[in-house]
Amino acid sequence: MPDNAVQRTRNSAFILSFMSLGRRRRAYIFYGLLSALLALCIYETVLHRREARHVNLVAREVVRAAGAADERAVVTALRDYVRRQVRHEEEHVSRDDRPFLRASAADTLRSGKGDCGEATRVFINMAGALGVRAQRLYLEGPQPHVVAVVRLGDAEVLVDSYDDPYVPELETLDEVMRRAEFNHYSSLNWRRLLLWLPSFKINLGPLAYLLENPHAFTALFWFTLASAWAALGLARWRAARRLVRRPCLSPATVIESAPHGIGKTADHINQQQ
What we know:
Blueprint: H1 3-66, H2 71-85, H3 105-111, H4 116-129, E1 134-140, E2 145-152, E3 155-159, H5 173-176, E4 184-186, H6 206-211, H7 214-244, H8 266-272
Antiparallel strand pairs: 1-2, 1-4, 2-3
Helix pairs in contact: 1-2, 1-3, 1-4, 1-7, 2-4, 3-4
């Protein structure tokens, strides 16, 4: 064999071994990141379930102590309990410096401190634990406020769980919007996202649950990233399989397989020498 042919063969073998090492390293990165994302998802899920049990136990104890016999009595008992338990203290609650993901309902119950948004979150989760569906509503105007919306019979009423309530009793949205303090309302806090839309109220369904449970929301976020990362790996694996099935290539010449990328062939490397 000519010297140049031997040298090309040696060069090709070196390149193939180098590329194989890179493939293994990418495999470690791929599976390591996937495992980390799934671990974060599991961690947030465990936290959420633990806090949900705490909220459930508190809600049942409140209703039992109040002797609530119907849904309206349950709503009133939970609202009054949150008003007593969650107190707004200006030195502990700053509206200008707060995390994007607010404190969970369990955290607020333990600390006993929160604004109208935190109080509403506690009420919604406690009501949900007892089978009463509720979601928040943002009231805008000279006195921005957050309340919960609950359907009682054929009517929807607003539940103000704030310790200094703007809406002391159960009232309908039409009744509340006649007040001078409010001129706009929305089911989503568009102002927080620097957007403005006309007044609207919609049924958020499962989204309302996620928005009121930061750990559940975060768990879904990590699961979505893990799924996207796994889907990317699957797509690259399928691309590698299609390359192997081409008549001009054999499996032995394919260097890299998905989810770690598609490698070059030995023939292609030799052609570049």
